[in-house]
Amino acid sequence: MKLHCFILVFLVASISIVPHFAQSENGDFSIELIHPDSPKSPFYNPTLNQRQLMANALQRSINRANFFTSNSQLSTSIIPDIKGLYLTKISIGTRPSVKLAVVDTGSDIIWIQCQPCIHCFHQKTPIFNPKNSSTYKPISCNSTRCKNLPGSSCDIAKNTCLYSATYNDQSYSFGDLATEIFTFDDSTNISRKRRLSLSNITFGCGRRNNLTIGDVELSGIIGLGASPFSLVSQIKSTFGRRFSYCLVPFYQLNVSSRLNFGEKALISGKHMVSTPLFLKPPKVYYFLKLLGISIGNKTLRFYNSSKSGHEGNIAIDSGTTITFLPTQLYSDMETIVKNEIKLKPLRSNETQILNLCYRELHVSDVPFIKFQFQNAEVKLNAMNSFVNIGDGIVCLAFAPTETVPIFGNVAQTNFLVGYDLDKMIVYFEPTNCAKL
Q1: Which residues form the Peptidase A1 domain (predicted)?
Q2: What are phi and psi of 398, to 5 degrees?
């Protein structure tokens, strides 16, 4: 059995934000996640071959990893390339039309382009017009929500709270902070589709927006970060402050990935493991504590540079393709993997980032790699540790970094990954995501 390619780029406190819900029969719901290279995606380009797709994904991964180190303000995302993240369908207001929005665990706020737009990126679908919705309500400057949003300001003439979402690649969104009904297509039961409406959702109604995405259908961002303004925090009173996702391999993009909330996000299988979840300033991004990595019967220790042994030392990010490790740890890992695989590696490759590559590598040739997190051992199989870059070449899906280590989404493929933000725990359960 040869390795298939599995590029995955998913492309995320407590205050008084209490949404209300309609048309919800159970305490859970799931929404479809559209991969950027899926035929359902506006970014889909059928002319690209495997080598080109992988090169694009790796470049996006490098960009995101580089921006991960910046000191961002809250209401900031690390996404420097929106084309690398998963999308979902949403509807807004009392006269809704379906729109596509980016879903990102590295973003802390929800915002959508709104009319009248002073400066907006091109959007194929109609831009949301608050005047056409009877449920749109701007938030006042003296409200608790406005005061609790870092970087907020006030339009004194209208007594309307203003938000500011800035990005490390100079993208941005500015506008009014408001509440509105958001409606999702619930995919919990495929045979019986239903629509779930969430009212009183706090979001940014963007009047000045800039994202370099070209002529596509995107309308905004749904943040799943740890701030009180992310979607998962706002729906906690009904669904709890938890979510999970299951990402299908790249070669199965005809099947959608899923993002789950509420009871559906609970993970309790017999092979489930759990590890503490940590937040680091600006308390938007998620971190785990990595103790070491085992390859075959050899174990490498992760030397934590943090002064406190109780902090996370590796980010877990659904928007970064490969896994980035400290340079020395990566070098030692590459050496052991090379010794374990009884094949001659290629002398060079054209990926500019992946160092250890083979031609015609088979699953049976690849040693198991185990990530030893605090209280949890996550066992990676061949498709979690190698990627197919095209032309029959597969490469180790890890790279060295001198900055923030990142546990990327290739390593998370075919795991049900659950986040419980109340217990501050992440769960991993090996799963065939295509069959959920």
Answers
A1: 86-429
A2: -135, 155
Which of 81, 176, 186, 317 is labelled catalytic?
Answer: 317
Tens of pLDDT, residues 285-334: 799 999 999 999 999 999 764 544 568 999 998 888 899 999 999 999 99
Q: Which of 376, 380, 381 is nearest to 272 (CA)?
A: 376
**Phi, psi (5° rounding) for residue 238?**
-105, -40
| Residue 325 near residue 401, CB atoms below 8 Å | yes
Are 217 and 225 a contacting pair, CB within 8 Å?
no
Among the options 81, 104, 169, 186, which is catalytic? 104
Whether 186 sits among the annotated catalytic residues: the reply is no
Distance CA 409, CA 432 (A): 15
**Backbone CA torsion sign across 113, 119, 121, 126:** positive
pLDDT in tens, 326-362: 999 999 999 999 999 999 999 766 556 799 999 989 9
Per residue in 361-387, pLDDT tens? Answer: 999 999 999 999 999 999 999 999 999
Q: Which two tokens stand for residue 247?
A: 């990402």
Domain ranges (residues) in the chain: 28-263, 268-430
DSSP state of 383: H
Single pTM value for the model: 0.87
Query: How far from 61 is each of 127, 179, 281, 384, CA to CA, in Å?
Result: 30, 34, 22, 16
Pick the CATH number of 268-430 from 1.20.1250.20, 2.40.70.10, 3.30.505.10, 2.60.40.150: 2.40.70.10
Are 28-263 and 268-430 in the same CATH fold? yes
Active site residue 391: no
Gap between the Cα atoms of 67 and 3, Å rounded: 30
